[in-house]
Amino acid sequence: MKKILLRNLFFLLMFFLLTGSIASADDSVCIECHGGLSGQLGEIPTAEWHTSVHATHRVSCHDCHGGDPTDYVEAMSPDRGFIGVPDYAEVPAFCGRCHVGVEEDYRASLHGQMLEFGGPNCVSCHESHAVQVATIDLINEVSCSRCHSYDKPALIKQEISDTEAMLSRLETSIASLYRVGFDTGRLQDELFSTRNNFRRLFHSVDIEKIRSETAAFDADLAETKATIDGLEETLGQRKLAGGALVLLLILGGCIALLIRRTYEDHE
Ligand code: HEC
Ligand code: HEC
Ligand code: HEC
Ligand code: HEC
Ligand code: HEC
Question: Which of 1, 56, 170, 190 is 20 to 30 A from 73, alpha carbon to alpha carbon?
Answer without folding.
Answer: 56
